[in-house]
Recover the amino acids of this structure.
Protein backbone atom coordinates (compact mmCIF):
# COMPACT_ATOMS: atom_id res chain seq x y z
CA UNK A 1 0.00 0.00 0.00
CA UNK A 2 2.33 2.74 1.17
CA UNK A 3 6.03 2.19 0.84
CA UNK A 4 7.30 5.64 0.14
CA UNK A 5 9.87 5.70 2.93
CA UNK A 6 13.08 5.40 0.97
CA UNK A 7 12.06 7.87 -1.72
CA UNK A 8 13.36 11.40 -1.81
CA UNK A 9 11.15 13.59 0.35
CA UNK A 10 10.87 16.16 -2.43
CA UNK A 11 9.01 13.65 -4.62
CA UNK A 12 6.62 12.71 -1.83
CA UNK A 13 3.41 14.71 -1.73
CA UNK A 14 0.63 14.71 0.83
CA UNK A 15 -2.82 14.78 -0.73
CA UNK A 16 -6.34 13.34 -0.75
CA UNK A 17 -7.13 10.25 -2.79
CA UNK A 18 -9.45 12.31 -4.99
CA UNK A 19 -6.68 14.82 -5.68
CA UNK A 20 -4.27 11.99 -6.52
CA UNK A 21 -6.66 10.74 -9.24
CA UNK A 22 -6.79 14.20 -10.82
CA UNK A 23 -2.99 14.59 -10.82
CA UNK A 24 -2.47 11.05 -12.15
CA UNK A 25 -5.03 11.57 -14.95
CA UNK A 26 -3.16 14.61 -16.25
CA UNK A 27 0.19 12.88 -15.91
CA UNK A 28 -0.84 9.74 -17.80
CA UNK A 29 -1.91 11.74 -20.82
CA UNK A 30 -5.68 11.77 -20.31
CA UNK A 31 -7.43 13.71 -23.11
CA UNK A 32 -10.72 14.50 -21.46
CA UNK A 33 -12.56 14.48 -18.13
CA UNK A 34 -16.34 14.91 -18.08
CA UNK A 35 -18.14 14.94 -14.75
CA UNK A 36 -20.81 16.30 -12.48
CA UNK A 37 -20.06 17.16 -8.83
CA UNK A 38 -21.17 14.90 -5.98
CA UNK A 39 -19.75 14.31 -2.49
CA UNK A 40 -17.43 12.54 -1.63
CA UNK A 41 -15.54 12.83 -4.94
CA UNK A 42 -15.97 16.48 -5.98
CA UNK A 43 -12.26 17.17 -5.36
CA UNK A 44 -11.43 15.21 -8.53
CA UNK A 45 -13.00 17.83 -10.80
CA UNK A 46 -12.09 20.68 -8.42
CA UNK A 47 -8.41 19.70 -8.57
CA UNK A 48 -8.52 19.34 -12.36
CA UNK A 49 -10.09 22.80 -12.64
CA UNK A 50 -7.40 24.25 -10.36
CA UNK A 51 -4.57 22.60 -12.28
CA UNK A 52 -5.94 23.91 -15.62
CA UNK A 53 -4.43 21.11 -17.73
CA UNK A 54 -5.92 22.65 -20.91
CA UNK A 55 -3.09 25.17 -20.63
CA UNK A 56 -0.37 22.54 -20.33
CA UNK A 57 -1.18 19.12 -21.81
CA UNK A 58 -4.29 20.25 -23.68
CA UNK A 59 -6.58 17.98 -21.64
CA UNK A 60 -10.26 18.98 -21.67
CA UNK A 61 -12.01 19.28 -18.30
CA UNK A 62 -15.73 19.81 -18.58
CA UNK A 63 -18.56 20.00 -16.07
CA UNK A 64 -21.49 18.36 -17.82
CA UNK A 65 -25.15 19.07 -17.09
CA UNK A 66 -25.67 15.64 -15.54
CA UNK A 67 -24.07 12.24 -14.99
CA UNK A 68 -25.97 10.89 -18.00
CA UNK A 69 -24.41 13.58 -20.16
CA UNK A 70 -20.95 12.92 -18.64
CA UNK A 71 -20.90 9.24 -19.54
CA UNK A 72 -22.15 9.95 -23.06
CA UNK A 73 -19.42 12.57 -23.53
CA UNK A 74 -16.96 9.87 -22.42
CA UNK A 75 -18.56 7.53 -25.02
CA UNK A 76 -17.97 10.16 -27.71
CA UNK A 77 -14.38 10.86 -26.64
CA UNK A 78 -13.57 7.15 -26.41
CA UNK A 79 -15.01 6.61 -29.90
CA UNK A 80 -12.35 8.99 -31.21
CA UNK A 81 -9.60 6.96 -29.52
CA UNK A 82 -9.10 9.61 -26.86
CA UNK A 83 -8.24 8.77 -23.25
CA UNK A 84 -11.55 9.76 -21.67
CA UNK A 85 -12.77 9.51 -18.09
CA UNK A 86 -15.52 10.45 -15.69
CA UNK A 87 -16.02 10.17 -11.95
CA UNK A 88 -18.97 10.19 -9.61
CA UNK A 89 -20.35 8.66 -6.44
CA UNK A 90 -22.96 5.95 -6.03
CA UNK A 91 -26.25 7.68 -7.06
CA UNK A 92 -24.46 9.37 -9.95
CA UNK A 93 -22.91 6.10 -11.12
CA UNK A 94 -26.38 4.53 -11.12
CA UNK A 95 -27.43 7.22 -13.60
CA UNK A 96 -24.49 6.28 -15.84
CA UNK A 97 -25.31 2.58 -16.15
CA UNK A 98 -27.02 2.78 -19.54
CA UNK A 99 -24.01 4.55 -21.05
CA UNK A 100 -21.56 2.12 -19.45
CA UNK A 101 -23.42 -0.85 -20.98
CA UNK A 102 -23.31 0.88 -24.41
CA UNK A 103 -19.56 1.57 -24.12
CA UNK A 104 -18.87 -2.03 -23.03
CA UNK A 105 -20.81 -3.33 -26.06
CA UNK A 106 -19.18 -0.86 -28.45
CA UNK A 107 -15.82 -2.09 -27.07
CA UNK A 108 -14.33 1.29 -26.32
CA UNK A 109 -11.69 2.16 -23.71
CA UNK A 110 -12.54 4.56 -20.86
CA UNK A 111 -12.08 5.02 -17.12
CA UNK A 112 -14.92 5.50 -14.65
CA UNK A 113 -14.28 6.35 -10.99
CA UNK A 114 -16.88 5.56 -8.32
CA UNK A 115 -16.06 6.95 -4.86
CA UNK A 116 -18.83 5.05 -3.09
CA UNK A 117 -21.17 6.52 -0.48
CA UNK A 118 -23.93 4.98 1.59
CA UNK A 119 -27.11 3.96 -0.21
CA UNK A 120 -29.61 2.86 -1.37
CA UNK A 121 -31.30 5.90 -2.89
CA UNK A 122 -29.73 9.29 -2.40
CA UNK A 123 -28.46 7.75 0.83
CA UNK A 124 -25.75 9.53 2.75
CA UNK A 125 -22.38 11.05 1.90
CA UNK A 126 -20.31 8.80 4.16
CA UNK A 127 -18.17 5.90 2.92
CA UNK A 128 -19.69 2.61 1.78
CA UNK A 129 -18.87 -0.43 -0.36
CA UNK A 130 -22.43 -1.34 -1.24
CA UNK A 131 -21.93 -0.87 -5.00
CA UNK A 132 -19.93 -4.12 -5.32
CA UNK A 133 -22.77 -5.97 -7.05
CA UNK A 134 -23.43 -3.04 -9.38
CA UNK A 135 -19.74 -2.90 -10.28
CA UNK A 136 -18.86 -6.54 -10.87
CA UNK A 137 -22.19 -8.18 -11.71
CA UNK A 138 -23.27 -5.88 -14.49
CA UNK A 139 -24.99 -2.77 -13.17
CA UNK A 140 -26.34 -1.95 -16.59
CA UNK A 141 -28.18 -4.40 -18.82
CA UNK A 142 -26.73 -7.25 -20.80
CA UNK A 143 -23.83 -9.68 -20.43
CA UNK A 144 -20.91 -7.36 -19.89
CA UNK A 145 -18.19 -7.01 -17.25
CA UNK A 146 -16.09 -4.07 -16.13
CA UNK A 147 -12.50 -4.52 -15.08
CA UNK A 148 -12.88 -3.26 -11.51
CA UNK A 149 -9.91 -1.96 -9.50
CA UNK A 150 -10.25 -1.44 -5.74
CA UNK A 151 -7.62 0.99 -4.40
CA UNK A 152 -6.89 0.89 -0.66
CA UNK A 153 -4.55 3.88 -0.35
CA UNK A 154 -3.94 7.30 -1.84
CA UNK A 155 -0.89 5.89 -3.64
CA UNK A 156 -3.11 3.30 -5.29
CA UNK A 157 -5.62 5.99 -6.33
CA UNK A 158 -2.79 7.48 -8.41
CA UNK A 159 -1.33 4.15 -9.59
CA UNK A 160 -4.72 2.65 -10.49
CA UNK A 161 -5.61 5.66 -12.64
CA UNK A 162 -2.60 4.95 -14.85
CA UNK A 163 -3.23 1.19 -14.77
CA UNK A 164 -6.94 1.67 -15.58
CA UNK A 165 -6.16 3.52 -18.82
CA UNK A 166 -3.56 0.90 -19.79
CA UNK A 167 -6.05 -1.95 -19.23
CA UNK A 168 -8.85 -0.06 -20.97
CA UNK A 169 -6.77 0.34 -24.15
CA UNK A 170 -5.30 -3.18 -23.90
CA UNK A 171 -8.73 -4.83 -23.82
CA UNK A 172 -10.92 -2.08 -25.32
CA UNK A 173 -13.27 -2.05 -22.38
CA UNK A 174 -14.42 0.38 -19.70
CA UNK A 175 -12.40 0.11 -16.47
CA UNK A 176 -13.93 1.06 -13.14
CA UNK A 177 -11.95 2.38 -10.18
CA UNK A 178 -14.10 1.46 -7.19
CA UNK A 179 -13.02 3.54 -4.19
CA UNK A 180 -15.00 4.80 -1.20
CA UNK A 181 -15.34 8.00 0.82
CA UNK A 182 -12.43 7.18 3.13
CA UNK A 183 -9.90 6.59 0.35
CA UNK A 184 -11.20 9.64 -1.53
CA UNK A 185 -11.14 12.03 1.43
CA UNK A 186 -8.10 10.98 3.44
CA UNK A 187 -4.63 12.40 2.91
CA UNK A 188 -1.60 10.15 2.72
CA UNK A 189 1.82 10.26 1.17
CA UNK A 190 1.92 9.72 -2.55
CA UNK A 191 4.51 9.67 -5.28
CA UNK A 192 2.84 10.74 -8.51
CA UNK A 193 3.43 8.84 -11.75
CA UNK A 194 5.81 10.31 -14.35
CA UNK A 195 4.41 12.52 -17.12
CA UNK A 196 3.42 10.80 -20.39
CA UNK A 197 2.47 12.98 -23.33
CA UNK A 198 -1.06 12.73 -24.75
CA UNK A 199 -1.29 10.63 -27.90
CA UNK A 200 -1.00 12.67 -31.08
CA UNK A 201 -3.45 12.03 -33.91
CA UNK A 202 -0.99 9.87 -35.94
CA UNK A 203 -0.46 7.67 -32.87
CA UNK A 204 -4.21 7.27 -32.36
CA UNK A 205 -4.67 6.34 -36.05
CA UNK A 206 -1.96 3.72 -35.69
CA UNK A 207 -2.94 2.26 -32.30
CA UNK A 208 -6.71 2.63 -32.60
CA UNK A 209 -7.63 1.73 -36.20
CA UNK A 210 -11.28 1.52 -35.08
CA UNK A 211 -11.39 5.18 -33.98
CA UNK A 212 -13.73 7.61 -35.73
CA UNK A 213 -11.23 10.33 -36.51
CA UNK A 214 -12.42 11.19 -40.00
CA UNK A 215 -12.39 8.74 -42.91
CA UNK A 216 -9.40 8.58 -45.22
CA UNK A 217 -10.11 7.31 -48.78
CA UNK A 218 -8.07 4.17 -48.09
CA UNK A 219 -10.61 2.46 -45.84
CA UNK A 220 -14.31 1.90 -45.26
CA UNK A 221 -16.07 4.03 -42.62
CA UNK A 222 -15.52 3.03 -38.99
CA UNK A 223 -18.86 2.49 -37.30
CA UNK A 224 -19.23 2.59 -33.55
CA UNK A 225 -22.53 1.30 -32.23
CA UNK A 226 -24.00 -1.05 -29.67
CA UNK A 227 -27.03 -1.84 -31.85
CA UNK A 228 -27.24 -5.03 -33.91
CA UNK A 229 -30.78 -5.94 -34.94
CA UNK A 230 -29.81 -9.40 -36.21
CA UNK A 231 -29.76 -11.84 -33.28
CA UNK A 232 -27.03 -13.95 -34.88
CA UNK A 233 -24.80 -10.91 -35.20
CA UNK A 234 -25.55 -9.90 -31.58
CA UNK A 235 -24.64 -13.38 -30.40
CA UNK A 236 -21.32 -13.16 -32.25
CA UNK A 237 -20.60 -9.90 -30.43
CA UNK A 238 -21.50 -11.54 -27.11
CA UNK A 239 -19.21 -14.50 -27.82
CA UNK A 240 -16.38 -12.08 -28.59
CA UNK A 241 -17.05 -10.16 -25.36
CA UNK A 242 -17.12 -13.33 -23.26
CA UNK A 243 -13.81 -14.49 -24.80
CA UNK A 244 -12.32 -11.13 -23.85
CA UNK A 245 -13.59 -11.38 -20.24
CA UNK A 246 -12.16 -14.90 -20.04
CA UNK A 247 -8.77 -13.62 -21.18
CA UNK A 248 -8.96 -10.85 -18.57
CA UNK A 249 -9.75 -13.45 -15.88
CA UNK A 250 -6.70 -15.45 -16.95
CA UNK A 251 -4.25 -12.58 -17.07
CA UNK A 252 -5.19 -9.63 -14.91
CA UNK A 253 -6.01 -10.89 -11.40
CA UNK A 254 -4.35 -8.80 -8.69
CA UNK A 255 -4.45 -9.30 -4.93
CA UNK A 256 -2.31 -8.72 -1.86
CA UNK A 257 -1.72 -11.06 1.07
CA UNK A 258 -0.92 -9.99 4.61
CA UNK A 259 0.33 -12.43 7.29
CA UNK A 260 -1.05 -15.36 5.30
CA UNK A 261 1.86 -17.83 5.42
CA UNK A 262 0.88 -19.67 8.60
CA UNK A 263 -2.67 -18.29 8.90
CA UNK A 264 -5.39 -20.49 10.38
CA UNK A 265 -8.08 -17.87 9.85
CA UNK A 266 -8.36 -15.71 6.73
CA UNK A 267 -10.04 -12.32 6.43
CA UNK A 268 -11.03 -11.24 2.91
CA UNK A 269 -11.63 -7.51 2.44
CA UNK A 270 -11.01 -4.78 -0.15
CA UNK A 271 -10.49 -1.00 -0.11
CA UNK A 272 -11.01 0.77 3.21
CA UNK A 273 -12.27 -2.43 4.87
CA UNK A 274 -8.92 -4.05 4.06
CA UNK A 275 -7.09 -1.23 5.86
CA UNK A 276 -9.29 -1.73 8.93
CA UNK A 277 -8.88 -5.52 8.74
CA UNK A 278 -5.10 -5.25 8.48
CA UNK A 279 -5.12 -3.61 11.89
CA UNK A 280 -7.53 -6.27 13.19
CA UNK A 281 -5.08 -8.94 11.96
CA UNK A 282 -2.22 -7.21 13.80
CA UNK A 283 -4.35 -7.15 16.98
CA UNK A 284 -5.34 -10.81 16.55
CA UNK A 285 -1.69 -11.83 16.08
CA UNK A 286 -0.79 -9.93 19.28
CA UNK A 287 -3.34 -12.16 21.08
CA UNK A 288 -1.87 -15.30 19.54
CA UNK A 289 -4.65 -15.85 16.97
CA UNK A 290 -3.08 -16.85 13.65
CA UNK A 291 -5.04 -14.56 11.36
CA UNK A 292 -4.16 -13.37 7.87
CA UNK A 293 -5.78 -11.20 5.23
CA UNK A 294 -6.27 -11.45 1.49
CA UNK A 295 -7.11 -8.17 -0.24
CA UNK A 296 -8.51 -8.41 -3.77
CA UNK A 297 -7.08 -5.49 -5.79
CA UNK A 298 -9.10 -6.47 -8.88
CA UNK A 299 -12.72 -7.27 -8.01
CA UNK A 300 -13.33 -8.35 -11.60
CA UNK A 301 -11.36 -10.44 -12.36
CA UNK A 302 -11.82 -11.87 -8.85
CA UNK A 303 -8.94 -13.75 -7.14
CA UNK A 304 -11.01 -16.96 -7.08
CA UNK A 305 -8.03 -19.31 -7.40
CA UNK A 306 -6.03 -17.66 -4.61
CA UNK A 307 -9.01 -17.80 -2.24
CA UNK A 308 -9.75 -21.37 -3.25
CA UNK A 309 -6.16 -22.35 -2.43
CA UNK A 310 -6.49 -20.81 1.03
CA UNK A 311 -9.63 -22.86 1.62
CA UNK A 312 -7.39 -25.94 1.69
CA UNK A 313 -5.20 -24.43 4.41
CA UNK A 314 -7.30 -22.35 6.82
CA UNK A 315 -10.00 -23.32 9.36
CA UNK A 316 -12.40 -20.53 8.44
CA UNK A 317 -12.80 -17.22 6.62
CA UNK A 318 -14.40 -13.90 7.49
CA UNK A 319 -15.37 -11.46 4.76
CA UNK A 320 -15.61 -7.84 5.91
CA UNK A 321 -17.36 -5.20 3.82
CA UNK A 322 -19.06 -1.85 4.28
CA UNK A 323 -22.31 -3.37 2.99
CA UNK A 324 -24.89 -6.03 3.86
CA UNK A 325 -22.58 -8.67 2.37
CA UNK A 326 -21.94 -8.69 -1.36
CA UNK A 327 -18.36 -9.84 -2.10
CA UNK A 328 -18.93 -12.62 0.46
CA UNK A 329 -20.99 -14.41 -2.22
CA UNK A 330 -17.95 -14.58 -4.52
CA UNK A 331 -15.75 -15.74 -1.63
CA UNK A 332 -18.27 -18.53 -0.88
CA UNK A 333 -18.30 -19.55 -4.56
CA UNK A 334 -14.48 -19.78 -4.48
CA UNK A 335 -14.46 -21.76 -1.22
CA UNK A 336 -17.34 -24.00 -2.34
CA UNK A 337 -18.29 -25.18 1.14
CA UNK A 338 -14.88 -26.47 2.19
CA UNK A 339 -14.58 -24.15 5.23
CA UNK A 340 -17.08 -21.82 6.92
CA UNK A 341 -17.20 -18.34 5.36
CA UNK A 342 -18.80 -15.81 7.69
CA UNK A 343 -19.56 -12.14 7.12
CA UNK A 344 -19.22 -8.96 9.12
CA UNK A 345 -20.27 -5.57 7.80
CA UNK A 346 -21.61 -2.13 8.58
CA UNK A 347 -24.02 -0.29 6.33
CA UNK A 348 -25.23 3.15 5.36
CA UNK A 349 -21.95 5.01 5.72
CA UNK A 350 -20.52 3.46 8.91
CA UNK A 351 -16.91 2.26 8.77
CA UNK A 352 -16.29 -0.78 10.99
CA UNK A 353 -13.57 -0.37 13.62
CA UNK A 354 -10.62 -2.77 13.99
CA UNK A 355 -12.03 -3.85 17.41
CA UNK A 356 -15.38 -4.80 15.89
CA UNK A 357 -13.67 -6.86 13.19
CA UNK A 358 -11.50 -8.67 15.75
CA UNK A 359 -14.59 -9.43 17.87
CA UNK A 360 -16.43 -10.74 14.80
CA UNK A 361 -13.44 -12.91 13.88
CA UNK A 362 -13.40 -14.40 17.38
CA UNK A 363 -17.19 -14.82 17.76
CA UNK A 364 -18.05 -16.04 14.27
CA UNK A 365 -14.97 -18.07 13.34
CA UNK A 366 -12.46 -18.81 16.11
CA UNK A 367 -14.99 -19.77 18.84
CA UNK A 368 -17.13 -21.79 16.41
CA UNK A 369 -14.07 -23.82 15.44
CA UNK A 370 -13.40 -24.58 19.11
CA UNK A 371 -17.01 -25.82 19.45
CA UNK A 372 -16.63 -28.09 16.38
CA UNK A 373 -13.28 -29.46 17.56
CA UNK B 1 7.14 5.46 17.13
CA UNK B 2 3.44 5.56 16.41
CA UNK B 3 1.00 8.22 17.55
CA UNK B 4 -2.74 8.00 16.95
CA UNK B 5 -4.43 11.36 17.46
CA UNK B 6 -7.99 12.65 17.30
CA UNK B 7 -8.63 16.40 17.11
CA UNK B 8 -12.25 17.51 17.53
CA UNK B 9 -14.14 20.76 17.91
CA UNK B 10 -16.59 23.11 16.20
CA UNK B 11 -16.23 23.73 12.48
CA UNK B 12 -14.12 26.90 12.11
CA UNK B 13 -11.86 26.30 15.11
CA UNK B 14 -9.12 25.10 12.79
CA UNK B 15 -9.42 21.42 13.70
CA UNK B 16 -8.81 20.08 10.18
CA UNK B 17 -5.98 22.57 9.56
CA UNK B 18 -4.27 21.64 12.80
CA UNK B 19 -4.40 18.00 11.72
CA UNK B 20 -3.05 18.89 8.31
CA UNK B 21 -0.10 20.79 9.83
CA UNK B 22 0.68 17.80 12.07
CA UNK B 23 0.54 15.47 9.06
CA UNK B 24 2.87 17.73 7.05
CA UNK B 25 5.25 17.89 10.03
CA UNK B 26 5.35 14.07 10.12
CA UNK B 27 5.98 14.05 6.39
CA UNK B 28 8.94 16.43 6.86
CA UNK B 29 10.52 14.08 9.36
CA UNK B 30 10.17 11.12 7.00
CA UNK B 31 7.29 9.38 8.78
CA UNK B 32 4.27 7.58 7.36
CA UNK B 33 1.19 9.77 7.88
CA UNK B 34 -2.56 9.59 7.42
CA UNK B 35 -5.15 12.36 7.82
CA UNK B 36 -8.78 11.32 7.83
CA UNK B 37 -11.35 14.12 8.24
CA UNK B 38 -15.00 13.92 9.14
CA UNK B 39 -16.47 15.21 5.90
CA UNK B 40 -20.04 14.31 6.73
CA UNK B 41 -22.92 16.40 8.09
CA UNK B 42 -20.89 17.26 11.21
CA UNK B 43 -18.57 19.34 9.02
CA UNK B 44 -21.60 21.30 7.86
CA UNK B 45 -22.35 23.11 11.10
CA UNK B 46 -21.74 20.67 13.94
CA UNK B 47 -18.57 19.26 15.37
CA UNK B 48 -15.69 18.46 13.06
CA UNK B 49 -12.96 15.96 13.77
CA UNK B 50 -9.85 14.58 12.16
CA UNK B 51 -7.81 11.46 12.85
CA UNK B 52 -4.07 11.90 12.33
CA UNK B 53 -1.64 9.00 12.52
CA UNK B 54 2.14 9.47 12.50
CA UNK B 55 4.16 6.28 12.38
CA UNK B 56 7.58 4.89 11.54
CA UNK B 57 5.83 1.83 10.06
CA UNK B 58 3.25 1.41 7.32
CA UNK B 59 -0.15 2.59 8.60
CA UNK B 60 -2.95 0.04 8.50
CA UNK B 61 -6.34 1.48 9.47
CA UNK B 62 -6.85 5.23 8.97
CA UNK B 63 -10.07 4.91 10.99
CA UNK B 64 -9.70 4.16 14.71
CA UNK B 65 -11.77 3.78 17.84
CA UNK B 66 -9.12 4.46 20.46
CA UNK B 67 -6.41 7.08 20.51
CA UNK B 68 -3.07 7.85 22.16
CA UNK B 69 -3.96 11.52 22.25
CA UNK B 70 -7.26 13.40 22.05
CA UNK B 71 -7.49 17.17 21.61
CA UNK B 72 -11.04 18.35 22.30
CA UNK B 73 -12.15 21.93 21.76
CA UNK B 74 -15.85 21.73 22.64
CA UNK B 75 -18.19 19.93 25.03
CA UNK B 76 -19.69 17.43 22.53
CA UNK B 77 -16.17 16.40 21.50
CA UNK B 78 -15.12 15.83 25.12
CA UNK B 79 -18.28 13.79 25.74
CA UNK B 80 -17.62 11.70 22.63
CA UNK B 81 -13.88 11.13 22.87
CA UNK B 82 -12.87 11.13 26.58
CA UNK B 83 -13.71 7.44 26.88
CA UNK B 84 -11.75 6.65 23.71
CA UNK B 85 -8.32 7.70 24.98
CA UNK B 86 -6.14 4.64 25.63
CA UNK B 87 -5.22 4.12 29.33
CA UNK B 88 -2.03 6.08 29.96
CA UNK B 89 -2.85 8.32 26.99
CA UNK B 90 -3.24 12.08 26.81
CA UNK B 91 -6.31 14.32 26.76
CA UNK B 92 -5.92 18.03 26.01
CA UNK B 93 -8.91 20.35 26.23
CA UNK B 94 -9.64 24.02 25.83
CA UNK B 95 -11.97 24.76 28.73
CA UNK B 96 -13.84 27.61 27.00
CA UNK B 97 -17.59 27.07 27.44
CA UNK B 98 -17.27 23.69 29.15
CA UNK B 99 -19.90 22.70 31.73
CA UNK B 100 -18.56 19.21 32.37
CA UNK B 101 -14.85 18.54 32.74
CA UNK B 102 -12.81 15.34 32.18
CA UNK B 103 -13.14 12.81 34.98
CA UNK B 104 -10.85 9.92 34.02
CA UNK B 105 -7.97 9.17 36.35
CA UNK B 106 -6.05 6.69 34.18
CA UNK B 107 -4.97 9.23 31.54
CA UNK B 108 -2.91 12.42 31.51
CA UNK B 109 -5.22 15.43 31.35
CA UNK B 110 -4.06 18.89 30.29
CA UNK B 111 -5.97 22.15 29.99
CA UNK B 112 -5.04 24.94 27.60
CA UNK B 113 -7.16 28.10 27.56
CA UNK B 114 -6.18 29.03 24.03
CA UNK B 115 -9.54 30.50 22.99
CA UNK B 116 -9.59 32.92 25.93
CA UNK B 117 -5.95 33.89 25.35
CA UNK B 118 -6.35 34.28 21.61
CA UNK B 119 -9.38 36.59 21.94
CA UNK B 120 -7.84 38.66 24.75
CA UNK B 121 -4.70 39.20 22.67
CA UNK B 122 -6.42 39.58 19.29
CA UNK B 123 -4.77 36.44 17.95
CA UNK B 124 -7.88 34.41 17.18
CA UNK B 125 -6.52 33.31 13.78
CA UNK B 126 -3.64 31.40 15.38
CA UNK B 127 -5.76 29.78 18.11
CA UNK B 128 -5.21 26.30 16.68
CA UNK B 129 -1.44 26.86 16.52
CA UNK B 130 -1.46 27.81 20.21
CA UNK B 131 -3.10 24.46 20.93
CA UNK B 132 -0.61 22.68 18.67
CA UNK B 133 2.17 24.32 20.72
CA UNK B 134 0.56 22.97 23.88
CA UNK B 135 0.44 19.48 22.36
CA UNK B 136 4.10 19.61 21.34
CA UNK B 137 5.10 20.69 24.86
CA UNK B 138 3.51 17.62 26.46
CA UNK B 139 3.82 15.17 23.52
CA UNK B 140 6.91 16.20 21.50
CA UNK B 141 5.95 13.93 18.58
CA UNK B 142 7.24 16.32 15.94
CA UNK B 143 9.97 18.93 16.21
CA UNK B 144 8.93 22.59 15.92
CA UNK B 145 11.51 22.93 13.15
CA UNK B 146 9.62 20.31 11.14
CA UNK B 147 6.29 22.02 11.80
CA UNK B 148 7.73 25.19 10.25
CA UNK B 149 9.10 23.21 7.30
CA UNK B 150 5.70 21.57 6.91
CA UNK B 151 3.97 24.98 6.90
CA UNK B 152 6.37 26.13 4.22
CA UNK B 153 5.62 23.08 2.07
CA UNK B 154 1.84 23.25 2.52
CA UNK B 155 1.20 27.00 2.31
CA UNK B 156 1.29 28.90 -0.97
CA UNK B 157 4.22 31.38 -1.24
CA UNK B 158 1.95 34.38 -0.68
CA UNK B 159 1.26 33.17 2.87
CA UNK B 160 4.86 32.43 3.87
CA UNK B 161 5.14 35.80 5.68
CA UNK B 162 2.64 34.42 8.26
CA UNK B 163 4.97 31.62 9.37
CA UNK B 164 6.77 33.66 12.11
CA UNK B 165 3.35 34.52 13.61
CA UNK B 166 2.53 30.81 13.74
CA UNK B 167 5.88 30.04 15.36
CA UNK B 168 5.12 32.63 18.03
CA UNK B 169 1.72 31.01 18.64
CA UNK B 170 3.39 27.61 19.12
CA UNK B 171 5.72 29.15 21.73
CA UNK B 172 2.71 30.77 23.47
CA UNK B 173 0.91 27.41 23.62
CA UNK B 174 3.94 25.74 25.16
CA UNK B 175 3.76 28.23 28.04
CA UNK B 176 -0.03 28.18 28.36
CA UNK B 177 -0.69 24.45 28.78
CA UNK B 178 -1.24 23.15 32.35
CA UNK B 179 -1.37 19.62 33.69
CA UNK B 180 -4.51 18.80 35.68
CA UNK B 181 -3.93 15.15 36.55
Amino acid sequence: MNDTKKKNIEEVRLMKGNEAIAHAAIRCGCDGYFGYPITPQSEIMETLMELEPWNTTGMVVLQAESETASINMVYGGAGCGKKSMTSSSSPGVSLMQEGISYIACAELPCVIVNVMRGGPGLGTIQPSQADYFQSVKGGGHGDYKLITLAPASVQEMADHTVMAFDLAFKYLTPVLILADGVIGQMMEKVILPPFQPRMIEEEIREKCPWATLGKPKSRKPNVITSLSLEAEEMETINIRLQAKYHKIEENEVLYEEFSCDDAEYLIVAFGTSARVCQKAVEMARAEGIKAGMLRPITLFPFPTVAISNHANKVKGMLTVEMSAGQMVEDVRLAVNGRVPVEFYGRMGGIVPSPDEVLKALKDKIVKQQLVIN
Amino acid sequence: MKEEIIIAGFGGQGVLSMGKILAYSGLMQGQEVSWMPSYGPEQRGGTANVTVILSDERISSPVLNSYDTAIVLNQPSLDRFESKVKPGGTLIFDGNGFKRFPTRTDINIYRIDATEYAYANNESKTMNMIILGGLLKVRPIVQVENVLKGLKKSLPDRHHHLIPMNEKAIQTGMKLIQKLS
